[in-house]
Amino acid sequence: MYNLTFEFNIEKLVQAIAYFSKSGIRDLTKLKAAKLFYFADKEHLLEHGQPILGDVYFCMDFGPVPSMSLNEMSGAINGSEVPLTDASDASLFSRVLNVKKLFYRYPRFEARDDAYNPSVFSETELGALRSTVNLYGFKSAQELVTLTHNEPTWAISNEGRQRGSRALITYDLFFNGASERSQRFLAKLVAEQFGTAIPLAGDADYLGFANELASFNFAPEEIPESDARRTERYSKT
Fold first, then answer.
1. Burial grade of 52 (CB within 10 A; 0-12, 13-18, 19 or more)
2. What percent of the chain is modeled with pLDDT above 90?
3. Highest mean pLDDT range out of 57-66, 93-102, 192-201?
4. Domain co-membership, 152 together with 227
5. Contact 55, 92 (CB under 8 A)
6. Can you name the residues that pair with 167 across neighbouring β-strands?
7. Does 80 lie in the same domain as 50?
8. Which residues of 88-106 are buried (b: 16+ CB within 10 A; e: fewer)?
9. Which of 18, 95, 188, 195 meets the CB 3.0–4.6 Å disulfide criterion with 111?
10. CB burial class (10 A; 0-12, 13-18, 19+) of residue 7?
């Protein structure tokens, strides 16, 4: 497994919640928002090689959880006991979002008037958010939990996990069963972050040739004199 990492963006988190709210999602609880983030991040990662939020995902009882986003949403719901500064995460939430608690079993997020700012997103990120709303936005939180339990990211990470605990979901698991085009994004990310080349389905012929060449025992007379000198120079003693 490759534990790929990305930079978390708190402003995109807050504006993504605002986007969902502005799109007409009324039951925007912390749990439902977390599931929507998962599907949006997955789509953008497979289609463009980067998640939107850059969060760290964990496998938990209710599916994949974006851990930093969950902490930020919990902080916004519970409020702050210290004075807010303009630069604080809580201040950013309060400027963009209302937290509706009255009459609801679980608090819900709602965008403030004129607070949504789409400029923090690229066009491809907006496309992934739009697609997520169309596909999943009007399902219940429980329906989304059930859907995420069928995802390889959760199912694989859940193996051996004790109920009530959590297990890291590495980003390479998002590519499980993905297209060859998406797999090439994975290969690029692994090469950039780990300096490692990983085999791809479309490279089978090249890999076969490389493996055959690596295992072939050349007879001395088959090795040119220049290569023989090079072999002696770098051989292990």
1. buried
2. 73
3. 57-66
4. no
5. no
6. 59
7. yes
8. ebbebbbebbbbeeeeeee
9. 18
10. exposed
Per-residue pLDDT of 139-189, as tens digits, reads 999 999 999 999 999 999 999 999 999 999 999 999 999 999 999 999 999
Token pair listed for 160? 């051996």
184 backbone dihedrals φ, ψ, rounded to 5°: -70, -30
**Calculated CA dihedral for residues 160, 65, 108, 22, nearest 10 degrees:** -140
Say if 124 falls within a structural domain.
yes
Q: How far is CA 120 from CA 11, 97, 105, 108, 161, in A?
A: 7, 16, 32, 23, 36
Count of C-beta atoms within a 10 Å radius of residue 140: 12
What is the extent of the structural domain holding 29?
10-194
Single pTM value for the model: 0.82
* Cβ neighbour number for residue 46 with a 10 Å cutoff: 19
Task: Tally the domains of the chain.
Answer: 2
* Type and span of the H or E element at 22: helix 10-22
Residues 154 and 63: beta-carbon distance below 8 Å: yes
* Higher pLDDT, residue 216 or 163: 163
Distance CA 237, CA 220 (A): 19
217 and 178 in a single domain? The answer is: no
Neighbours of 224 (CB within 10 A): 8
| Unique residue bearing structure tokens 């496309």 | 127
* Cβ neighbours of 17 (radius 10 Å): 27
